[in-house]
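Researcher: Can you fold this with calcium ion in place?
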Amino acid sequence: MTIQHSFSWLLKAGVLASSFFLFACGGSASTAPDGSNGDPVVLPNPEPGPGPGDDDDDFEPEVPVEEGMINVDGTLFDNLADAQSAINTGSLVVIGNGTYSQGLHIQHDDVTVQGSEDTHFKGVAIQGKATFVVDGDSVTIEGIECSGVSVPDENGACVRQQGKDLTLSHVHFHSSEQGILSSTGSGKLTIEYSHFENLGKNGYAHAVYSNNDSLEIRYSKFHSSKDQGHEIKSRAASTLIEYSEIASLSGVDSRLVDISNGGSLTIRDSVLEQGPNSANNQLIGFGFEGVDGNVSQSVELTNNIVLLERSAGNVFLGMPDDLTGVGVTIRGNDFVGGPFNDQGSHDIEAYNDIYPDRTSYGLGPFPELPNIGL
Ligand SMILES: [Ca+2]
């Protein structure tokens, strides 16, 4: 179901993207080399229906389960502790509607955990870490709402990833210290169709804190990180963010995206909004905590809508002054608002469109965001 949905989404996105490309290339003589010609960026719209990024509310599990019950491979349990002991390699765990105050330790590989349309884990941490502690490899968690997680170390998360290769889909993680925290060497983390909001603690906990080898994010929303947390902090060698919305809104956040140790970063076809209360003037930071000279360094930021709404200044891409040899491509984006401190850098003026304010871009007042159908 999810795979088919993603596929048709991508097909449609591809068709739209290529028709925009043809239109742009056939346009007037004033068209810049990248197709930037004064027309607004066109982002692909998803299909209507169970929504990309539309929280957990429209999620349907593979097997229906009654409220308060947990189905593990066909056997029903009325509490999570008993359900947990029945989980094996490859298990399908479906959790019914309800508010849960027990966490789940997932120790086996290839386990899929699915919530129902209103499955909410509230204020639970196990092992002093998280609501879900995942030690198995290739685990998928879908259709879960999680909130209210805090622990003595102030890094309480909805999910702590300690095994390799985790997928989060249709999750709504909010109002906690951290959304997800992953361990070093934990393979790939994929986040799709999900919503993270109101997360962060003391500048050290974040909505997404990835120590993976690679991080891929699509069709998701990251809103209003708090207490100087980043929306996305990644130490992964490779980070890809596409078709997503990353917005400070009124939050006192730090950076929208912090790529602490450099690597390969791509952000495309997304909305990035730095809000009026952001504590750090940078939207994106790259390499501020030491860069591994053996990893190739590149930054590709293309076809995004970028709102600059911090009156004390906005730096789109911050990098340490002494960091060299990073290939930076910033093309085909629409920048809206200001002041825009680094608009003279990275050929931004030549290859992107810059609008002084929301009105000139045809966008309503703050906090409205461009509708990309998420
Ligand atoms: Ca910021």
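Model: Folded with calcium ion in place. The longest strand covers residues 130-134.
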